[in-house]
Design goal:
There is one protein chain. The chain has a single domain, classed as 3-Layer(aba) Sandwich (Rossmann fold), CATH 3.40.50. The chain starts with a strand and ends with a helix. The longest helix is centred in the C-terminal third of the chain and has 18 residues. Helix 1 crosses helix 5, helix 2 packs parallel to helix 3 and helix 5 runs antiparallel to helix 6. It is an alpha/beta fold and about 190 residues long. It is globular, with a radius of gyration of 15 Å. It has a seven-stranded mixed sheet with strand order 2-3-4-1-5-7-6, sandwiched between helices.
C-alpha cells in the first residue's frame, strides 16, 4: 500500500491559491483514477483506490498547512503504515512554476507544512514532490504571495506541473523512488 499526502489549506477561500498546489495535484490523481476523496478520518479527507494494481490512499490534511503533521501522524498510527510508503506533494518557492523536484530527505526549507511533518514523524527522511510556485518580487509579502492565486499567464505551466506530478506519482507506484527521481528530476 502507498499513501500520497497533498498539502494545502481547507475551504473555498484557499482552493486556488499557490499554497494549495498539493491539493490540486491530488484532485487530479483522484480524477484520473476515479478515487473519491471525501472520507473524513485522521484529521483529513481520504480516498482509497487501486492504481496499476497497487492500493493507494490519497490524503488531504484538513488541519491547515502549519499542522499537516498531525494528520500524517494520525494516519500512520491508525493504519500502521511505514513512512517509506508515503509521498508528500507540496508547493516550493525555490522552484519555478511549471517545474517539479523530487527528494527523499532534507530540511523543511522554511515550509511550515513540512516542518510539522518532520516534527510529528521525528525524521527528515521521507519522499516528496516539490511543485514550483516561484518566488514573489522583492518586497512582496511571502504570506500574501502563497495565499494568492496563480495569474492567467501561469495557467499553462501550472497545468503542466500538475500533470507531471501525477505522472511521477503513477510511475513511483511501480518503481523505486530513486528511479522516479532519476526520471522526473530534470
Amino acid at each position: 500500500m502507498k499513501w500520497i499526502v497533498g498539502l494545502g489549506n481547507p475551504g473555498p477561500k484557499y482552493e486556488k491559491t499557490r499554497h494549495n498546489i498539493g491539493f490540486m495535484a491530488l484532485d487530479e490523481m483522484a480524477k484520473r483514477h476515479h478515487i473519491d476523496v471525501r472520507q473524513h478520518k485522521c484529521k483529513a479527507l481520504l480516498g482509497e483506490g487501486m492504481i496499476g494494481g497497487t492500493k493507494v490512499y490519497l490524503i488531504k490534511p484538513m488541519t491547515y498547512m502549519n499542522l499537516s503533521g498531525e494528520s500524517v501522524r494520525a494516519f500512520m498510527d491508525y493504519y500502521k503504515v511505514p513512512l517509506e510508503d508515503m509521498i508528500v506533494v507540496y508547493d516550493d518557492l525555490d522552484t519555478e512554476v511549471g517545474r517539479i523536484r523530487l527528494r527523499y530527505q532534507g530540511s523543511a526549507g522554511g515550509h511550515n507544512g513540512i516542518k510539522s511533518i518532520i516534527q510529528h514523524t521525528g525524521t527528515q527522511s521521507f519522499n516528496r514532490i516539490r511543485m514550483g510556485i516561484s518566488r514573489p518580487e522583492p518586497g512582496y509579502s511571502i504570506i500574501d504571495y502563497v495565499l494568492g492565486t496563480f495569474p492567467k499567464k501561469e495557467a499553462e505551466p501550472l497545468h503542466a506541473s500538475i500533470e507531471q506530478t501525477c505522472d511521477a506519482l503513477e510511475f513511483s507506484l511501480q518503481a523505486t523512488f530513486e528511479q522516479t527521481m532519476a526520471k522526473f528530476n530534470r
